[in-house]
């Protein structure tokens, strides 16, 4: 639990203390935190997967054959793939954070250049910009005016749909059948068999997959809703309002 708290605190601190905000930012950081906690809890039943895989072998090389059957059944990494999907989800969130930080830096530099008597030579560096009084003020990104930023935002949201949608498919169609409770008939080239194996505590493992799938499905639905809302509100309806004003 100490490790999960250590990883969770920086995420929440970044979400609260950052002075640059945009539509749905708090929600994405909330999903990032919930995803991390769910991932930590879901990994617990899989911690002793090798021991939980049992076979009815009586030969002298039973342990060797059991491991051979284990490698045949779990032919793809489970927990490592879960962790990698979380890294990809984090990258999609941090991409927008990087763009927002760069946008804020550019806007402050433009304001500094318009200010009379500002020392551009000294304040034009990153240190000078961060030390300027404008850097301490909150900024809300207006997607009506920042069309390039909006496109990057839509790209990040689309990435989340693709990442979580793929991860959801892997959980349901690839990992869940591995622990469906049915007997595993094993026959490998090194151990012809046939042998029967099973995975102990399969209900706990299925429940962990269901919990991850629920969070991923929620992220997919929310991301699609935000994508459609941003498309309609900022591109379609926003352009119509601008043309009517002109």
From TrEMBL:
The keyword Cell membrane applies. InterPro entries: Connexin (IPR000500), Connexin_N (IPR013092), Connexin_N_sf (IPR038359). It is a multi-pass membrane protein. It comes from the Eukaryota. Keywords: Cell membrane, Membrane, Transmembrane, Transmembrane helix. GO terms for cellular component: connexin complex. The chain crosses the membrane at residues 84-103, 150-174, 209-229. This is Gap junction beta-3 protein. It comes from Acipenser oxyrinchus oxyrinchus. The lineage of its organism: Eukaryota, Metazoa, Chordata, Craniata, Vertebrata.
């Amino acid at each position: 639990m100490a490790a999960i708290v250590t990883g969770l605190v920086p995420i929440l601190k970044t979400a609260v203390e950052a002075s640059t905000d945009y539509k749905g930012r708090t929600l994405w950081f909330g999903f990032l935190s919930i995803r991390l906690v769910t991932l930590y809890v879901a990994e617990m039943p899989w911690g002793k997967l090798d021991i939980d895989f049992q076979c009815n072998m009586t030969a002298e090389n039973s342990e060797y054959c059991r491991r051979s059957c284990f490698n045949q059944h779990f032919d793809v990494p489970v927990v490592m793939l879960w962790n990698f999907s979380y890294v990809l989800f984090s990258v999609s969130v941090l991409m927008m954070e990087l763009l927002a930080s760069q946008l804020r830096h550019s806007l402050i530099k433009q304001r500094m250049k318009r200010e009379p008597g500002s020392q551009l030579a000294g304040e034009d560096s990153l240190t000078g910009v961060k030390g300027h009084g404008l850097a301490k003020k909150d900024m809300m990104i207006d997607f009506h005016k920042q069309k390039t930023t909006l496109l990057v935002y839509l790209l990040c949201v689309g990435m989340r749909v693709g990442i979580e949608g793929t991860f959801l498919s892997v959980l349901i169609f690839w990992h869940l059948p591995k622990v469906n409770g049915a007997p595993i008939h094993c026959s490998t080239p090194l151990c012809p068999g046939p042998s029967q194996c099973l995975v102990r505590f399969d209900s706990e493992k299925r429940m962990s997959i269901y919990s991850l799938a629920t969070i991923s499905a929620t992220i997919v639905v929310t991301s699609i809703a935000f994508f459609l809302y941003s498309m309609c509100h900022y591109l379609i309806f926003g352009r119509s309002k601008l043309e009517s004003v002109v």
